[in-house]
Specification:
By secondary structure, the chain is mainly β. The protein contains no helices and eleven strands. It starts with a strand and ends with a strand.
Amino acid sequence: VQLQAFGGGLVQPGGSLRLSCAASGFSFPNYRMFWDRQAPGKGPERVATITPGSDRTVYADSVKGRFTISRDNAKNMLYLQMDSLKPEDTAVYYCIGVGKRGQGTQVTVSS
């Protein structure tokens, strides 16, 4: 199983980023997928969840209305569109699937 997240970077408050995750080594279309994040000195936080058919999504209260999780089962790709970013969104973001956490991508929100 490989889960490679990318697309992070430095962005100003109020800005946007789109994270992507390339999945391989398992039947991606059949699994619920997640984005987690972990800020320095804090435990992991489940940010968003999406069902295999994209019929249901769930968000943490801290990101609801600002983040959108999506997937492309034909390409084995998971996405996280992050809008109206805040400094408290600064964290390493991880793609989660089949009980595995891939390599994360750093998101820093700062002016």
